[in-house]
Fold these 3 entries.
Entry 1:
Amino acid sequence: MKKLFTIALLAILASFITVDAQKYYGYVSDPDGYTFVRAAASTNAEILREYASGEYLYYTPLKNGWSKVYSDGSSSSFMGYMHTSRIVRVEADDVEDDDLTGFEQGYIVDPEDDYVNVRKGPGTNYSIVCRLEVGTTVFFNADPKSKWVEVYDEYMNYLGYVYRNRISQHL
């Protein structure tokens, strides 16, 4: 009886433990050349962001044909939903060094805050897409005349725009 009670108690406790779902790495492949990240798993849901074909992301497939998508492997980087048919799974180690041609590597810096806003366009009048913590590694276009630069994460996923003086090539 005591053994049966222990087994039942363990089963109840196990049902309260949440396991973080498996995240896979992949790239967007869409015949239109782009696809959307949406606020919910529906084509009628609000569009939060556009991903070009060839851009990399992390995702967790759902049973309804959609996937939760993330900018990196952490749960806190959740961006929204994308139809799984638009994602091709790859191993993270398969990213080619050629993908980095024309970009410089830098680190997010800010003398006043612990993060920097990434914006949808080149200016503070554009909406905030996400925030990057100080010290985060990014790749960016190296145009010295531009005050705003397009930034990409360590896997060359496009993130948005950051003010140029918030990126340093030295930590």
Note: The two ends are 61 Å apart (CA to CA).
Entry 2:
Amino acid sequence: MKSKLAGVLGGVGPMATVYFQQMVLELTEASCDQDHLDMLVSNHATIPDRTAFILGESRLSPLFDMAQDAQMLARAGCDFLVLPCNTAHFFYEHIQNAVSIPLLNIIEGTVSACAEQGAARIGVLATAGTVAANTYDIMCRRFGLSCIYPDAATQKQVTAVIYDGVKAGRHIRAKEMAALYNRMREEGCDAIVLGCTELSVAHRDLELHAAHPDVIDSLETLARRTIEYAGKRLRS
């Protein structure tokens, strides 16, 4: 059976897009080049900041650029699209309506993964834009789960890791990430979602998977769904 061509709406941010591609490669069961899935990647890094627009700090909407990129990938022959950015899913319905091919939803896939693992109370670490848009809480209610966002002081720390850390190219320390995880555990969360793909980058660089099995990485969840949707096999 011919596999589907994936179109990646990337550049939001650029490092997360690169890590997404690497995750897809590593998570695909492959013994040769041809076993991997085909991807067309638009690494559009100059798209206006999503969080700034959602919070009303900027009048520059990223929607026009993202919709145009989606249409470009559709015209190029992509069978479906993925958007490795949680905050940009504030515009999910508008982007999906701009094309006739499916756009996989990173938030739906991540919350579904939490439900499959038996989680009931999910702590979400994300940009202030994602928190303000409330996209995770809306999705959690569809699955019958509770969604917990950080308090103001913890959210400030999350924002610093994302913008002053990963996006700025600064090395993040393991104890910075562990402190965020522990804070959400103190709130009674039985699963912690990395709801920003820059947090996924830090988590992966620091190799924190084994030490924090209750942490669900939205970028990895999207990579797994992308492989399966394309008709390829997940590595066991």
Note: The longest strand covers residues 6-10.
Entry 3:
Amino acid sequence: MIFHDIIFYSFAVVLFFQCSYYLFLFGRFAFSKLQQTTRQEQLPVSVIICAKNEAENLKQFLPAVIDQQYPHFEIVLINDASSDATLDVMETFAEAHSNIKIVDVKSVETFWGNKKYALTLGIKAATHDTLLFTDADCAPISPLWIEEMTAPIQAKKTIVLGYGAYKTVKKSFLNKLIRFETVTTAMTYFAMAKIGSPYMGVGRNLAYTKTQFFKANGFVKHMKIRSGDDDLFVNQAATKSNTTYCISNNSTTLSIPKTSFASWFKQKRRHISTAHYYKLQHKLTLALFYITNVLFYALGITLLSIGYLPFYVIPLIGIRFAIQYAVYNGAAKKLNEKGLLLLLPFLECFLITFQFVIFISNKVSKPNYWK
């Protein structure tokens, strides 16, 4: 019985941490009021898109960037040593639109396959101080994307975190899992930014100033790490005073999600590998949540299977799920994500297992590629 008592009290401690995360961290974002940022002056903007073998995606998605309703912006297209027709497609668009600038990056042995090198050249070539980043396989869902994503950039706000959604595919479990992971990640980095401890952003939708980039010495501190041009830069440069976020229907970008578990696994291996280089406080915050998440299910299932104090255990589990559902519901509404809540526990368990497999895989071999 003493062993069972230890399991129960350990479960109670884990439950306390889980509820605290949802109520006092994620809830700060999920239950917050949306604030519309306005400004008198519309600063000129350089939209930066780095592409490697993205000829077909550029044809499909670049027009949504070109058609932005913004008075003064340029588009910097970076061809990162592509082997397909990417450069030809860029040149075709540039011939038709005078605000498109092309940066053709050749392979350099020292920086082979390193997106940060290509991005650095693109940033240097940008005419304007306000930079807005997205990917070649990504499109803003509104012609007001530039206006809303860059509106918060003021004297003290030099980094703006945005939301990069994935297209909904009906009757696809993988699609639900991808979108659930995306919502979870976004809810986390928006909540951390809201409490004054920003730790990451996504390159599909991210803005910062050229001045801020060079003030932080660009990607120099993590140039040898081939991933992390977005999250590692934000982790390095973002502070409570210089960072904010922008979420609205007009500020979102939309990407086509992976269609196989193998391709998504490869993508997430690359993304998760950068977490090792986060600041200690961020690594501890994320690790504690993941560990208590795993223990919640492990200890809860154990207590239910042995029938120990079910009149206490079942209500406690119910409380945790009720809080979690309320938080995810608030976050999903803000991010305009639908159709995920009914499968929430199942998606969460699958994602926990998936992340563990990725962690082990990254320990065995490092994913040193971006394309």
Note: The beta strands are 45-51, 73-80, 100-105, 130-135, 138-140, 159-161, 164-166, 206-209, 243-245, 253-255.
